[in-house]
Write a structure and sequence with these properties.
The complex is a heterodimer of chains A (about 300) and B (about 280). Chain A has about 300 residues and is of the alpha/beta class. Chain A is built from 12 helices and 12 strands. Chain A has 2 domains: about 150 residues, 3-Layer(aba) Sandwich (Rossmann fold), CATH 3.40.50; about 130 residues, 3-Layer(aba) Sandwich (Rossmann fold), CATH 3.40.50.920. In chain A, helix 1 runs parallel beside helix 7. Chain A is globular and about 60 Å long. Chain B is of the alpha/beta class and about 280 residues long. Chain B has one domain: Thiamin diphosphate (ThDP)-binding fold, Pyr/PP domains (Rossmann fold). Chain B is about 40% helix and about 10% strand. Chain B has 10 helices and 7 strands. Chain B is globular and about 50 Å long. Classes of the chains: A alpha/beta (about 300), B alpha/beta (about 280). Chains A and B meet through helix 3 and helix 5 of A and helix 5 and helix 6 of B.
Chain lengths: ~300, ~280
């Protein structure tokens, strides 16, 4: 995903002289093309994220469209107050990108994990929160963010994520994307868990359970029209995210669901537990530890589906 | 003394009186912090900054950011008297639904405000972003951020200082309202601040000291931005908290204390402003 980001932002920066790229001393060589193309619009802001966010806000207030890029915890929780005051209170059109989100950097330890960012960022007034499911959603999401006149947070993965969409989807901020139709249950994924949701749907199909798969690249604003349709139609709706079960997409949907009169479906939430993973391991290890595997999701969804029939 | 300087000093006395009256009327604290930076604000807004109150969003205007947002009670008076909005608007000060309280609102709500501040350590990074934007856009405006000495406790100030130096942001200037106090104690004792001028120099800035109540010196130093050195400029302005009223000067109780009606009268008498 980060390569797709670098490629797309270079393209956008070539077409739009307002685009400025700020990096927190990461992405060695990743942005060489951007730098070559627009040396005056690339800033390595060093390991100083609070300042980087304030600088971005100042640029946005002066008519530029800054894009801030570093590892997720450092571009979110490290400088949260700057995001809250300098960016959101000023309605400054800053695009904040968190790379290696969720458990992408499982082997780097909890300092580099980010299972809280969706929850925290979506509390901010006026903030749009994106988590693209593959590189095509990322590219389209980045373009939509640039057209949007307000702050946007986008969490992305690391590299090597599977491509899900056969071609670029019709991406709109605040709209879910239907990946495949199904009649029995609904799997709803945000961010890099979209591939896992697809695998789970395949496992369910082997058990003759037809699963609809929806991608929610926008976590805020929620596509409540789509949710109303899904919860009215399916007996089980499972939310899958590489994020804590507190406050992420599952949490956001639960908030909405509690206000609905006749929601038929039962919400199942897959995400990380309320704990730090202190031991090291691969992303696959970490996902397994938190039940974020296609096998576990398919098993639990099938069990709930059987129970409700 | 030139006529210009006499005019500025007269405006500063009027502004001080208005701030003290407003504090009494609306229970607005931070009086000492406001009085210490009045001369800096007047020197900036009435003599130095290239701006037109009728065109507060003009792309080429100089930007002034009150990073020490708790000095808003002073800034609100200065902007009103300078003509960014009718002074009569300040009659609503402190009322429910008013824009005027203890900190500046976001720029969209009040002409003349460049950034919503109040949480310290934010104004300089925002100002640096504005200065870098000027370079990208090929514009020639200056950005001045006014910080308090207590504000220099914040790490983000020094993050911005380092980046401004590496970026050679020569149209960026910092003014420190160095009144030697922060909310609950001497700024030197809370977090060792000295040597403050040397710190800015060590961070790659062209730093100098000034009497923060000497209008002529303040105007001269601010007009020297950019100074041709390729470095950002730091002006450490020595000030007196509560300046202008003998019984408030250098007394930190006036960080939070509200003056009585009698104290307002006594203060105005000292300032030579009609009651």
């Amino acid at each position: 995903m980060r390569n797709a980001f670098a490629d797309e932002i270079t393209r956008l920066g070539g077409a739009d002289p307002r685009v400025v790229l700020l990096s927190g001393d990461i992405g060695n060589k990743l942005f060489d093309k951007f730098k070559e193309q627009a040396p005056g619009r690339f800033f390595n802001c060093g390991v100083a994220e609070a300042n980087m966010m304030g600088v971005a806000a100042g640029m946005a207030l002066s008519g530029l469209r800054p894009v801030v890029y570093t590892i997720t915890p450092f571009t979110t929780t490290r400088c949260f107050e700057q995001i809250r005051v300098d960016v959101c209170y000023h309605k400054a059109p800053v695009i904040i990108v968190g790379t290696g989100s969720g458990l992408s950097y499982a082997d780097l330890g909890p300092t580099h994990h980010s299972c809280e960012d969706l929850a925290i960022l979506r509390t901010l007034p006026g903030m749009t929160v994106l988590a693209p499911g593959d590189s095509l959603e990322l590219r389209a999401g980045l373009r939509a963010a640039l057209k949007h006149d307000g702050p946007v947070y986008m969490r992305i993965g690391k590299k090597g994520e599977p491509q899900i969409h056969p071609r670029e989807p019709d991406f709109q901020l605040g709209r879910a994307l239907t990946i495949q139709q199904g009649t029995d249950v609904c799997l709803l994924a945000t961010g890099v868990m979209l591939a896992t949701a697809m695998q789970a749907a395949k496992l369910l199909a082997e058990q003759r359970i037809s699963a609809r798969v929806e991608s929610f690249p926008t976590v805020k604003p929620l596509d409540t029209a789509r949710l109303a349709e899904l919860f009215g139609r399916y007996g089980v709706v499972a939310v899958i995210e590489e994020h804590g079960r507190i406050g992420g997409l599952g949490g956001a949907i639960a908030e909405w669901l509690a206000t609905q009169e006749a929601a038929r479906a039962r919400l199942l939430s897959f995400g990380t537990a309320d704990e730090f993973m202190h031991e090291v391991g691969t992303t696959e290890y970490a996902r397994k530890r938190f039940g974020l595997t296609a096998e576990n999701i398919a098993r639990e969804v099938a069990g709930r589906h059987a129970h409700r029939r | 003394m030139s006529a210009d300087i006499a005019r500025l000093e007269s405006i500063a006395r009027q502004i001080r009186a208005r701030i003290i009256e407003t504090s009494h009327r609306t229970n607005t604290p931070h009086l000492g912090s406001c009085l210490s930076c009045v001369d800096i604000l007047v020197a900036a807004y009435f003599q130095t900054l290239r701006l037109d109150p009728a065109k507060p969003r003009d792309a080429d205007r100089d930007r002034f950011i009150l990073s020490k947002g708790h000095g808003a009670a002073a800034l609100f008076q200065v902007l009103g008297v300078r003509g960014f909005y009718p002074v009569a608007m300040l009659d609503d000060y402190g009322k429910d639904g008013s824009l005027f309280a203890e900190h500046p609102p976001a720029p969209e709500y009040l002409p003349g405000i460049e950034a919503a501040t109040g949480s310290l350590g934010h104004g300089l990074p925002i100002g640096l972003g504005m200065a870098l934007a000027a370079r990208i856009h090929g514009r020639k405006y200056n950005v001045i951020a006014l910080l308090s000495d207590g504000e220099c406790n914040e790490g983000s100030v020094w993050e911005a200082a380092m980046m401004a130096a590496s970026q050679k942001a020569e149209r960026l200037a910092v003014l420190i309202d160095f009144n030697k106090w922060q909310a609950t104690g001497r700024s030197e004792q809370v977090l060792a601040l000295s040597p403050l001028v040397d710190k800015w120099r060590a961070f790659g800035w062209n730093a100098c000291e000034a009497d923060g109540h000497d209008m002529a010196a303040l105007v001269r130093l601010m007009q020297r931005v950019p100074d041709g050195s390729g470095k950002p400029i730091a002006i450490v302005a020595h000030t007196v908290k509560g300046k202008g009223v003998s019984f408030m000067e250098d007394d930190n109780n006036w960080h939070y204390r509200i003056p009585t009606a009698d104290e307002v009268l006594a203060a105005k008498k000292e300032l030579g402003v009609a009651a």
